[in-house]
Known about the structure:
With 322 residues, the chain is of the alpha/beta class. The chain has helices spanning 2-26, 44-60, 75-82, 97-104, 140-148, 163-175, 187-196, 206-214, 261-275, 278-287, 296-317, and strands at 33-37, 64-68, 90-94, 116-126, 128-132, 154-157, 180-183, 201-204, 218-223, 248-256, 290-291. It folds into two domains: 31-126 and 248-317, D-Maltodextrin-Binding Protein, domain 2 (3-Layer(aba) Sandwich); 132-240, Periplasmic binding protein-like II (D-Maltodextrin-Binding Protein, domain 2).
Amino acid sequence: MESMMEVRRAVLLSALLGVLPLASAAGYPDKPIRLIVPFAAGGGVDALARPLAKEMGDVLGQNVFVDVKPSNTGQIGATEAARAAPDGYTLLISSAAFATTPAFYPKVPYHPVKDFEAITILATTPQVLVANASYPVSSVPDVLQAARSGKPVNFALSGSTGVQSLATELFSSLGKVELTKVPYKGAGAAFADLIGGQVDLMFDNPASSLVHVRSGRLKLLATTGAKRMASLPDTPTVAETLPGFEALNWFVLAAPAKTPPEVVQRLHAAALEAMRRPAMRQLIERDGLDVQGTSPAEARAFVAGEADKWTKVVKEKGLQLQ
């Protein structure tokens, strides 16, 4: 009899423990939510995070506040998010660097797939290939021809681990050309030299480059998506010359691993609703973002695919931190 009572108690305890995540999810959220931005204030991730936090807070009925934990590669903020309690009250918003950084840092203290629950890929944005206004090329075939002729073709790199630098490596690999890569510590210094003619070409974000294209200080050669950008329908993609080329920046919303599925789904619905609101639409249109709103499963697969793709490029090219 005593052993039967113990069995019944164990079954009851298991049942109670099983519904606890559901119970906690049903009342979620009942306190403010922290959204970690792992890069400096004022950058692209921060610019997206602030209106997103406000709109998600309105949807959820709780304050969502931005907590900036800056580092060049996003490691500090991502590591803190990965180690946070998996209760839905600490989230991370990051860029493509979330998946590319571990390729350069084998001992990075987090794994972009195993240590997180991907909530959604908020948006993606192709990059643009821009050239100094006086540089004598007007297309991707022109650039390849110049490189194959033996002339030095100088590409500015605004960092060693970002998607722009990796796009340059992929361009070199698929085009089977050697490029002279000139590293910079940031986009500001790279832009100054590109506009001044000290370097020839650069992959960059549309939001920061197109203003210089419109002013005539740079010229636009191509975009880096699989298809042409809706806002630049007359600009060809690199892939039209080099099939298979695609290099996107993207923005992911994620929670620590083992966050209850019901909480993840609540956050997913809130993020999608926030992205549809007028304040977010203004930002999206201004920066040329393509809204994605993927499911958590699709977001997880996307992050894993990007990590695998760029890790392969890093290994094949023997890339090192600079």
